[in-house]
Amino acid sequence: MTLLEVEDLSVRYAVDDDSAVHAVDHVSFDVEAGETYGLVGESGCGKTTLAKSLIHLLDSNGYVESGHVWYDGTLPAWEDDHGEAKQAVIDDPDKPVRGDGKTDLAALSNSQIRDVRWRDIALIPQSAMNALNPVYKVGDQITEAILRHEPETPKQEADDRARDLLERVGIEPERADDYAHQFSGGMKQRAVIAMAMACNPDMLIADEPTTALDVIIQDRILEELEAIQEEFGVSILVISHDISVMAEICDRMAVMYGGKIMESGRTRDIFEETSNPYTLGLKNSFPTITEADQELVSIPGTPPTLRDPEEGCRFRARCPFAIEECHSSHPPMYDVEEAIETGRLVEAADQRAHRSACYRVDELDTIRTQATKEETWTEQTIESR
């Protein structure tokens, strides 16, 4: 069952000169119930903006310009023109419910989305070090979240649940009476995970859950997320710049660059049958355990400015495989399997297919071979295209 369906979503940030930063540009993907889905890419590619837009946590100058965020869950009813609360089959895109019963989170009011957060979709924020209130006991912060969304719950029961949640993530229950500064970095991250699970949500959004942690603690945090998913059946949307995190825990993933998705599909397919120049470049910059003498190769140049993005493929200025067509328009998401089997470029209708935004998907053998060579990724090579 598809729990979350992001459809052609565009998110903008207004700036002082009346222009806008195109932070997320016509992005589509879906997340199945009980699945771990990953969004990976360089800093500034739009990952966190995309995640925050799903539950209305953008900065004050951020807004969803277009698109839908369809969610399959029990959400607050909307009112019709006569003030009657209802959930109905409708065709009007300005209303938050569509024919199959899914609700458009992007169309909910601020008061309605507050009821969705924590109860249906919970966020594990990017910096656990700053996510906890320093003047409240850690256990009290978890209790507060429970009582906000379940006001009928007795205070003692909420306190007991908070301690139980901390124990589930490997923190001694009595530490609920401690303050955040008394926790180590790894304990803070676990505490934030426990807080996110306070109201048994259907989905967790984990934004850079292993940032600023050493590799041992990173591994333990990822194990905690996997254990929570197995126990509660929760879906997890993982956001990271670390492609190795995706390989470890994600069932499917999408690679973002410049506000767009460049490649998406099953994690195994993306790693074993990499089909986009940007993904190939990203893989080159991370070490593998199978090649001890591997030379890491970085992608030359810098990500594009999204304030007034140029026409064409977002990655073309840094891509050694760009062709003339890349300058005119950004490529659609092509079906990789279809391109390999038939040599034809066909847009992928299925979100679950292995997809790549590249005009040269039908030339993958050549591109993959050249992408392994260090000289392919020099500024001189790219400038000479």
UniProtKB/TrEMBL annotation:
Molecular functions (GO terms) = ATP binding; ATP hydrolysis activity
Residue ranges of every copy of the ABC transporter domain listed in the record = 4-283
Q: List the membrane topology term(s).
A: Peripheral membrane protein
Q: Which SUPFAM superfamilies match?
A: P-loop containing nucleoside triphosphate hydrolases
Q: Where in the cell is it found?
A: Cell membrane
| Keywords tagged on the record | ATP-binding, Cell inner membrane, Cell membrane, Membrane, Nucleotide-binding, Translocase, Transport
Q: Which PROSITE patterns match?
A: ABC_TRANSPORTER_1 (PS00211), ABC_TRANSPORTER_2 (PS50893)
One Pfam assignment: oligo_HPY
Give the GO biological process terms. peptide transport
Kindly state one GO CC term assigned in the UniProt record: plasma membrane
Report the InterPro entries cross-referenced here.
AAA+_ATPase, ABC_Ni/Peptide_Import, ABC_transporter-like_ATP-bd, ABC_transporter-like_CS, Oligopep_ABC_C, P-loop_NTPase
What's the superkingdom here? Archaea
PANTHER family named among the record's database cross-references: ATPASE AAA-TYPE CORE DOMAIN-CONTAINING PROTEIN, OLIGOPEPTIDE TRANSPORT ATP-BINDING PROTEIN APPD
* Name the UniProt record assigns to this protein: Peptide ABC transporter ATPase
Instruction: Report the source organism.
Output: Candidatus Halobonum tyrrellensis G22
